[in-house]
Amino acid sequence: MTVSGRVPPVLRRALAPDDPHCYRHCDRPLRARALTARTPGLLLVYACPGGAVSVVTYSEWRNRDPTPTLLAYARTHTLPPRLVRRWDLRTATRHGPELGRGAEAYMGKARPPRPLRAVYWRVYPTRTKDGSVRRLFACARHGRGNVRFFLAPGDAQSPRCPACATGGKKRAR
Ligand SMILES: [Zn+2]
Ligand SMILES: [Zn+2]
To answer: Which ligand has its closest atom nearest to the C-alpha of 78?
Structure first.
């Protein structure tokens, strides 16, 4: 039996970060935005209304490592791509009991039985040599599914990404 890896809505709640607020930026609630991509699983970015990214997660409901898919996606959508470092990606395997009763019952009936596998890309704010803080932002000005990740000053609100600054469309895909 072929399993596509698609993540049904009943399992999506399991992917939310523990802290639902924007850490060290604005403390407002994070919003989950599903990104359109040619992937079988679910790609979500958790960011605040000002565009500061807390975590990007990709998950598949099948027993396969989702890391290469997120790594490839992130590198294609990050300026510059070298900001995406393999060690900033962490995987988690979620089984039924830790996901709440509804999700557990749903997973228990599935054949073949399989866990939810997720990978999380998290870039922590960093302090530069001059003492200023830089953190990861997402720019949503290039169309749905064509998000751009980039670093900007830690207190920025909805900053423009490098592609926007250079006229954008040439570099956007
Ligand atoms: Zn924020
Ligand atoms: Zn942009």
So the answer is: 2
- The Cα angle at residue 59 between residues 82 and 78, in degrees rounded to 5: 20
102-131 residue pLDDT tens: 889 999 999 999 999 999 999 999 999 999
Tell me 24's DSSP state: T
Ligand nearest to the CA of 146: 2
CB burial of residue 60 (10 Å; 0-12, 13-18, 19+): buried
Cα 155 to averaged position of ligand 1 atoms, centre (Å):
8
Q: What is the pTM of this model?
A: 0.90
- Between the CA of 9 and the centroid of ligand 2 the distance, in Å, is 29
Q: What is the mean pLDDT of each run of 10 residues along the chain (173 residues)?
A: 85 83 93 89 95 96 95 96 96 87 90 94 93 95 89 96 75 45
Residue 140 DSSP SS3: coil
Ligand 1 centroid distance, CA of 32 (Å): 13
CA of 89 to the centre of ligand 2 (A): 23
